[in-house]
Amino acid sequence: MSAEFQCEKSCYREAEGLVKFEAHKGASASQLSIAQVTELFELRAMIETELLAKAIPNVQDEDFASAQQTLSNLEHAFRSEDAIAC
Fold it and tell me: How confident is the model at residue 10 (pLDDT cuts 50, 70, 90)?
């Protein structure tokens, strides 16, 4: 989206309330309530489900192979508690 609208990613994060910028202090992560985090995850699930439904007709065999490799990498990172590996 940032490329489409020619805006920095930080602009979106600030608009979403995830990052706040203060003069002479810089950027910091916003404090979110449990309800806000839950809402963000629910919205993300709805958006990603819709995007997946629209993408399925265009999926090729090599896309499945790539997705399987990504899933394997994520599972390995999760088991080894290595967030950087993602």
Answer: low
Tokens of 61: 């065999």
Under 8 Å between Cβ of 10 and 1: no
User: Beta-carbon neighbour count of residue 32 at 10 Å?
Assistant: 13
Report the alpha-carbon distance of residue 28 to residue 39 in Å, rounded: 21
Sign, CA torsion 67/70/74/76: positive
Among 4, 30, 8, residue whose Cα is nearest residue 19: 30
Place of tokens 């990052």: 19
- Rounded to two decimals, the pTM is 0.48
